[in-house]
Write a structure and sequence with these properties.
Length: about 475
């Protein structure tokens, strides 16, 4: 932290040299909310404490061959014990919001049935600490750590019993945290938990289902989202706000002509048919139903499309560059050339304009009035230089370019109200173990020491100016 505060001098010298005008031109709305994000299994550790039950990620990480560096989230960043220090890390950034997730198996060790009375204690302590430091909590209810008992009993998300259990858990949490939590995200990235968890088996629970089974899982996940929205309305306080946190399939006009923009909007709606489209329109598209359609009722569709207060979107990369075409769909998805660059993670292709187009599409296609960027960030090699500092200029380059496009969106009137940088600190990066570091703060996992990378001061300066730094 000393490194971080010693750099605050940069802000002053920058302003003296007349960068204020430049900042004003790159400014964000006055009430724009700057935050950071984490998730329970990735940072908490303490997997056996206070009655927590096992999750599918405990089981998966402990299965040989599933995690590249053979690590687990048993200890992770030990956030469970170090949350006070971690809140100070947020404070040092000047962040005003924290997006974290609740571990369902802490609250219901068996997934459903009797709650564990001690399960919410940790979150109560964390919420009090956040409040004492003026940081607004944004709570994700499900960031992939399903109670293992639900996998064993019902087959997890292959059964609608899990969707129902999720609603009961959401109701329980909303009733108890409602005095301090005003914003909930239901499920983080339905897309990834379905595809990687149930399609290719690279994430827990490690299943490789058939195309029609996958669509059925996707339907149950969307149903879980809708049931949780209803549960929060019924059990939270008046004014509690709720929405999804989806990694929407991002469709970017390859060349920004009006025809390509329209084609990208069509692609966006079609390729998100199983999540955002059904959540916001209350129906699946014809093309989506043409093959391997899931079994569902019209009642299900009404639940899935329960009104939400905002859409959360995780924005990392362009999934598709789109060109208008004279074919049935009206668009062509450009194949990615082998020469397209990537960040440290080979899947992470930098495409800063994704940060403009995804929120713009969401606002335009579905007339959404409130959007949060629930995640954005990159991993890096993050090696300390001779003076001990991690000069992560690749992360700064990435963030600067994405935030420039976010500013383009807000200044054009796209209603993005906040941004949560992934991640506050290095953590357990799922099947990549600790080999991919996404933090603004470096974590030495042997000592649990946190050290700000140079990008922490980039983010701090951005927040302080409310403008792209
Ligand atoms: C998010 O997923 C998660 O919400 C978060 O928990 C995670 O730590 C963070 O981002 C960084 O990864 O099939 O091998 O090509 C990010 C979105 C989309 C990343 C799919 C991995 C494909 C990997 N993900 N992607 S692969």
């Amino acid at each position: 932290m000393s490194t971080l505060s010693s750099r605050s001098g940069l802000a002053q010298s920058g302003q003296e040299s007349g960068s204020q005008n430049r900042s004003a031109a790159k400014g964000f709305p006055n009430d724009f909310l700057w935050g950071t994000a984490t998730s329970s299994y990735q940072v908490e550790g303490a997997v056996n404490e206070d009655g927590r039950g096992p999750s599918i990620w405990d089981r998966f990480a402990h299965t040989p061959g599933m995690i590249s560096d053979r690590s687990t989230g048993d200890i992770a960043a030990d956030h469970f014990h170090r949350y006070k220090e971690d809140v100070q890390l947020m404070k040092a950034l000047g962040a005003k919001a924290y997006r974290f997730s609740i571990a369902w198996p802490r609250v219901f060790p068996e997934g459903s049935g009797s709650p564990n009375p001690k399960g919410l204690d940790f979150y109560n302590r964390l919420l009090d600490e956040l409040a004492a430091n003026g940081i607004e909590p944004f709570v994700t209810l499900y960031h992939w750590d399903l109670p293992q008992a639900l996998q064993d009993r019902h087959g997890g998300w292959t059964s609608r019993e899990t969707s129902k259990a999720f609603a009961d858990y959401a109701a329980y949490v909303a009733a108890r945290l409602g005095d301090r939590v005003k914003h909930y995200f239901t499920i983080n990235e339905c897309s990834r938990l379905v595809h990687l968890g149930h399609g290719i088996g690279a994430d827990a629970p490690g299943l490789k289902l058939s195309p029609s089974e996958i669509k059925q899982v996707r339907h149950h996940v969307a149903l879980g989202h809708g049931l949780a929205v209803q549960a929060i309305r019924a059990h939270g306080r008046a004014g509690t706000r709720v929405g999804p946190a989806e990694n929407a399939v991002s469709c970017i006009p390859a060349v920004e002509t009006p025809a390509n923009v329209r084609a990208a909007e069509k692609a966006m709606r079609e390729l998100n048919a199983g999540y955002l489209t059904v959540m916001l329109e209350g129906k699946y598209t014809d093309a989506y139903l043409a093959q391997d359609a899931p079994k569902y009722t019209t009642g299900d569709l009404r639940i899935i499309s329960s009104p939400i207060d905002f859409v959360g979107i995780n924005v990392y990369m362009p999934d598709h560059y789109v060109v208008a075409a004279d074919n049935e769909r009206g668009f062509t998805l450009a194949p990615f050339p082998a020469s397209f660059p990537h960040m440290k993670a080979t899947w992470l292709r930098p495409g800063p304009e994704t940060m403009y187009w995804v929120p713009r599409h969401v606002a335009k296609i579905w007339n959404v009035k409130s959007i949060y960027i629930t995640e954005n960030g990159t991993s890096g090699s993050d090696q300390p230089a001779a003076d001990g500092t991690i000069y992560d200029v690749d992360r700064i380059m990435y963030l600067r370019n994405y935030l420039t496009q976010l500013q383009r969106a807000t200044s054009a009137g796209v209603p993005v109200h906040g941004y949560f940088l992934w991640s506050l600190m290095d953590n357990f990066e799922w099947s990549d173990g600790y080999e991919q570091r996404f933090g603004l703060y470096h974590v030495d996992f042997a000592t649990q020491r946190r050290t700000p990378k140079l990008s922490a001061s980039f983010y701090r300066e951005t927040i302080a100016r409310n403008a792209v730094m």
